[in-house]
Design a protein that fits this description.
By secondary structure, this protein is an all-alpha fold. The chain has one domain. The chain contains 8 helices and no strands. The longest helix has 31 residues.
Length: 196
């Protein structure tokens, strides 16, 4: 997961490293919107990369290191990224995107809070389960980028010409975003229940 997060993270962040709105993957209406989008992207990268470290037994065994990484994950990654994601989604102008990205952003905050609270109560079983759900929401950035091409390719058997798949992509992205977090949460729940 860490290797996947690093590769996808580098690809996702690269257009925003110049801080040029013209390089953005999304059409951005203005400076404040781009600032929110860039904040979301960069802080999501923090969460995407730090998250897998928390599931490594050697890191978890070193409680102080685990705690520091966990706080960075939540406070420098999840919290600012989720808070920036809500206005970015709402300003997108597309209902599926607005709902499909606002819901996981809110769930991202809620699961992060529940994980933190469980750790504070020293209920480490619940803490780990909530963190699995939380990272499943973080991994949406990766899963949606896998789902969208699969959705596009799945159109080929229905007579959609391969040359027109590019024009279908914008309509498939919101669907892929929703499926991304739904699939991830289902996988997390399966793993949690197996672990029990």
């Amino acid at each position: 997961m860490l290797a996947t997060a690093l590769v996808f993270g580098a690809v996702l962040v690269t257009p925003y490293t110049s801080l040029d709105p013209g390089a953005s993957r999304l059409a951005v209406p203005g400076g404040p919107y781009f600032a929110l989008l860039a904040t979301h992207v960069f802080t999501a990268l923090v969460a995407l990369v730090l998250g897998p470290l928390q599931f490594v037994p050697a890191v978890r065994a070193r409680r102080r290191v685990h705690r520091v990484i966990g706080r960075c994950y939540l406070l420098a990654g999840v919290l600012p990224s989720a808070l920036a994601a809500v206005p970015v989604a709402l300003l997108s102008g597309r209902l599926v995107t607005q709902v499909g990205l606002t819901v996981p952003a809110v769930l991202w905050l809620v699961t992060g809070w529940l994980a933190y609270r469980a750790a504070a109560r020293r209920d480490f079983v619940r803490h780990r389960e909530w963190m699995m759900r939380n990272y499943a929401l973080t991994f949406l950035a990766v899963t949606s980028r896998i789902v969208v091409p699969l959705l596009l390719v799945s159109q080929l058997p229905f007579g959609v010409p391969a040359g027109s798949l590019g024009t279908l992509a914008p309509s498939m992205i919101p669907v892929g975003q929703v499926l991304g977090w739904v699939i991830n949460l289902i996988v997390a729940e399966i793993l949690i229940r197996r672990g029990r």
